[in-house]
Every structure is written in structure tokens, then in C-alpha cells.
Write a structure and sequence with these properties.
Elements (H helix, E strand, L loop, with lengths): L3 E2 L10 H5 L5 E3 L4 E3 L19 E2 L6 H12 L26 H4 L5
Antiparallel strand pairs: 1-4, 2-3
Length: 109
């Protein structure tokens, strides 16, 4: 399992984490970023770069957000015909333009 991005990232697409990721495994949805759990090498470079502390280690990750990050890649997202899976890096895919149902329906407290 890779690092996990939680709800603190919703509507906060700063991108500092993307700039330091050596394997390009942080993908952009519509309002949130997602870390591909099969591409992440657990290096931790992204952790200190997040301005809102939305990234957590695999051991400290809330299971809800760990599952949500995984589902961004393993389940066909709304309006998509197939799962994103592991395309080998976010740079080539560009913004995905859609979020998981959990994020799309999330209301910040």
C-alpha cells in the first residue's frame, strides 16, 4: 500500500506533492488528488510538501481514505467506461476530471 491522501485535499489542488514525487504516482481528479497504491514506492517525498497535511503514511491512513485512493484506480469512475488502473504515471494522463463517489458527495465540515 502506498501513501494516502485524505479529505483535507478536497478543493486543495496545490500540486507541491506532485512536483516532488519521483515516480509520478499522484493523479488529479476533479477536486482532489489520489496516490496510486501500486505505483507509490513509499519514499515519503510528498509528505512534507503538502500544505494542508492531507497525505498520510500507509500505517496511519484512515481505512476509508485508503480504500478511496485505491478505488480511484480500480473501479470505473462516474462517466468512465473502465478503471484507470496503473497507467504508469500521472504526467501522461493529465487531469482525470472526475472524483470517486465518496469525494464527489463529500461535504467539508
Amino acid at each position: 500500500m502506498g501513501y494516502v491522501i485524505n479529505d483535507k485535499c478536497i478543493n486543495e489542488l496545490d500540486g507541491s506533492c506532485v512536483d516532488v514525487c519521483p515516480v509520478d504516482c499522484i493523479y488529479e481528479g476533479l477536486t482532489k488528488r489520489y496516490i496510486n497504491p501500486t505505483e507509490c514506492i513509499d519514499c515519503g517525498a510528498c509528505l512534507p510538501e503538502c500544505p494542508v497535511d492531507a497525505i498520510t503514511t500507509p500505517k496511519k491512513a484512515d481505512p476509508t481514505w485508503a480504500q478511496d485512493n485505491a478505488e480511484f484506480f480500480s473501479v470505473a469512475l462516474p462517466g468512465k467506461d473502465a478503471p484507470l488502473e496503473s497507467p504508469g504515471g500521472a504526467y501522461g494522463t493529465g487531469p482525470i476530471g472526475v472524483d470517486t463517489p465518496l469525494v464527489a458527495n463529500w461535504t467539508k465540515e
